[in-house]
Amino acid sequence: MSTKLVLLDQLAACHHDKSWFVPLDEMLRDVTATQALSLNDEGQSIWRLVNHLTFWNETWLDRFIKGEVVMDNSIDNDETFIINPSQVSEEDWQKSIAHVGATFSRWIQAVEECDDAKLGMTIPSYFNAPWWNVISNLCIHNAYHIGQIMMLRKKVRGEMI
Questions:
Q1: CA-based nearest residue to 93, from 57, 48, 144, 61
Q2: How far apart are CA 107 and CA 60, in angstroms?
Q3: Cβ atoms 24, 142 nearer than 8 A
Q4: pLDDT tens column, 63-81
Q5: What pLDDT score was predicted for residue 161?
Q6: What is the largest CA-CA distance in the chain?
Q7: Could you tell me the end-to-end alpha-carbon distance of the chain, in angstroms, rounded to an integer?
Q8: Quick check: 31 and 161 in contact, CB under 8 A?
Q9: Helices 131-157 and 3-15 meet at what angle, rounded to 10?
Q10: Which of the listed residues 43, 44, 71, 94 has the most CB atoms within 10 Å of its CB?
Q11: Which tens digit of pLDDT belongs to each residue from 92-148?
């Protein structure tokens, strides 16, 4: 199996392909805006996690498409979880779900369309890591937070998954 196929499998598993864990699109299905805003004891919510995943997936996708990584030390990771208090309607929540889903779809398309050589190219400004490694670790990051979303969903919906 090629590196590209492994990465596409990982991206699909995170987004929509139920395999070892329930994918994000299924985790978000039937979650209301009120449920998505519900905070756990650590002050985390499903919506905040979705915003965080959207931010980092878009940031790295943009870097991948441009083929350059300029490390931005001004990014405050805590700010990637923020929800705009004026945009907390059911419609806004559905837009957030669509946005994160579209970002995953764009990632899948970008990997499908890239040549294998690009996946092996190293990123000098990012520990000389090859792109395939960065994308794989992005998938691990997604899986970690999808697990958190699953636990929050179980709590706010009182369900077993």
A1: 48
A2: 9
A3: yes
A4: 999 988 888 888 899 999 9
A5: 57
A6: 47
A7: 31
A8: no
A9: 20
A10: 44
A11: 999 999 999 999 999 999 999 999 999 999 999 999 999 999 999 999 999 999 999
Mean pLDDT (the chain) is: 94
Length in residues, the chain? 161
Paired with 41 in beta bridges are none
Nearest to 10 by CA among 144, 138, 148: 138
* Residue 81 near residue 51 (C-beta atoms within 8 A): yes
Check: CB of residue 111 under 8 Å from CB of residue 118: no
Single pTM value for the model = 0.94
pLDDT in tens, 46-57: 999 999 999 999
Tokens 């805006």 — which residue?
33
Strands (E), the chain: 122-123, 129-130
Q: Name the token pair of 12.
A: 């699909």
User: What does the angle CA 128 – CA 130 – CA 133 come to, to the nearest 5 degrees?
Assistant: 120
- In 3D space, the residue among 63, 54, 48 whose CA is nearest the CA of residue 135 turns out to be 63
Residue 70: strand, helix, or coil: coil
Report the alpha-carbon distance of residue 11 to residue 22 in Å, rounded: 13
Which tokens is 126 given? 């990012």
Residue 26 parent element (H or E): helix 24-28
